[in-house]
Predict the structure of Putative transcriptional regulator.
Amino acid sequence: MDTIGATIRRLRRWRGLTLEQAAGLAGISKGYLSKIENSRVAVDRRSTLVAIADALRVSLADITGDGLEIRDPDADSTVPAIRTALLDSDLDDSPPQGELSALLAETQLVAAMRQANQMAEVGRRLPPLITALHTHARQPEGLRALVSVAHTTSLLLKGLGAPDLAWIAADRGHEAAERLGDPHWIALAAFARTQAHSGLGAHRRAGTLARDALEIVPGDAIDVRGALTLTTGFIDSVVGDDPSAALDEAEGLARHVQDGNRHHLLFTPANVVLWRMASALEQGDYAAAATLAKSVHPTDLEINSRRTTYFIDYARALWGLRRPDEEVIALLAQAEKIGPVRTRSNAFVREIVSTMVERARRQAVAREARGLASRMGLLKTA
């Protein structure tokens, strides 16, 4: 797999743009773009990636890559069946398939398995579940389960490098929620849509969806309100606005939530800290992100998917602070241990590792970095 910098250079030349022209369109300096292309610096903000993609008139996925060389082949092989299930199912009346009670239990199971980074097994279980739940769309419980499964499906597909299909899954959940007509579930479906739009680089649209959903979410749905509020805060940081008000509000809400993971949103005080870290990184405030990381223990995050993100973002903060490579690699190793596909496919991790290998400041660290780079498909073989 090419580095992001090499991909940007290839796409820029394909578009017939000079460094100066592309940099100007992206709103960055020519020197900075040159360093990115030559892996002399790592891209450390989503807003930068989106700006470069817009300048080159390509999608965000065109730059970050689909990760085919490094994804779990077992998980990846489930995507065609998931696509078929989504495209072949609708909410029109069909003879019910399977017992609804069993499908509801399966819905909860696959959501928990995704949070545990069990991507391949989730991918295998989703197609028949998606198909069967559509046949129970006349019952409110069936529609609610479909909203939940659409959320699980969208996040899985996003992680497997299929952002367009992730959007289709999230929109299917929105369709089910609209038919149900319950503002609680409409707002929950909107959260899935915000994540799908962010995966496509459509951050402003994601922010609009989140704010619209906040207008209708019931007062007792504190976890849903909190997740949407966190989304608005993070989006503010991506587009250059101040996220502090939204993040402070979410922190206050988290103190009052009874079960922050009832919808598999993990809206807890510890997870709010993780969102604060992400916003600080997007603003380039690495010191704040590192300080926030020290304020929470990864076990407080409860689920492996969020723990993986914690170690990745902590590593990004230390990298931004130019801390020793040993410290950065140690955190990335912990992330890879509990979430190998999530870690290896992360665009920012790939940038850090490729830059680290290119620089190879210390041989011992270089060996560790090259090992991770190899598992990420970043090293060329003859």
Remarks:
- The longest helix spans residues 140-159.
